[in-house]
Amino acid sequence: MSTATERREGFTTVTPYITVENVEGFIAFAKEALGAIETGRTRHGSGGTHCELRIGDTVFMLADEYAAEGVFSPETLGGNSVSLMIYVQDSESVYARALAAGATAVRPIGIAHGARGGVLRDPFGHRWFVQTALEADDVPVEDVAGRRFGDIGYMTMEVADGERAARFYGQLFGWELHESPQPGSYHVASITPPSGIHHRPGDPEFRIFFRVDDIEATAARVRELGGEVLSTNVYESGGNAECVDDQGLRFDLFRPKPGY
Prior knowledge:
Blueprint: E1 17-20, H1 23-34, E2 37-43, E3 49-55, E4 58-64, H2 74-77, E5 83-87, H3 91-100, E6 104-112, E7 115-121, E8 127-133, E9 152-159, H4 162-173, E10 177-179, E11 186-188, E12 195-199, E13 205-211, H5 215-224, E14 228-235, E15 238-244, E16 250-256
Parallel strand pairs: 1-4, 5-8, 9-12, 13-16
Antiparallel strand pairs: 2-3, 3-4, 6-7, 7-8, 9-13, 10-11, 11-12, 14-15, 15-16
Helix pairs in contact: 1-3
């Protein structure tokens, strides 16, 4: 049996390793904007600098470009395919500090997917999500800015070919589409209310989700008024009840987790 440890002390199972054009400049930015602590520095085989930084409980590594192995920074490539997410106690202050240190705003501070945060690009081209997690179940709908009981909180397009619909509406409106775990389905976070495209055989239709504070209590009211509750569901982003009104019109009650 091997006696090797699974990983070095202080490192997570997966450790980010980024490439920068200006190592010294990046280290200075990370310390000033993100509270990074330098934990080690060496010279690597190409003569450049390898450095290890810690932010909170996470160590990440960085080095300058290494052309012999095709390793280049976002500045050289003109973009990047990997983003970094950092969880902090106060995303707004960290976001503002990063901007003051030379970062560029990509997406302003807002609430989404259970967290308050924004997206920025550091002075060296790397994309950062700066997030503060929200409590899971104790924020009423009315306490979420701009949302009220009975508002349309979500809408889905139920279509036989989700990829085709995503291509059509994405090109038509410039929507920001994120693939969902269900094949051929997408989440659209860039519109109000946030919406989805769902792959489902049969005739296309829209589904409307009305925001409520208490799904069970509102579902009971649906029954009292002569409607029908077909099912209730709980999932990562909240829960819903599939309902039919007293004339046969299909709709959903929707209780999102805070920030969704």
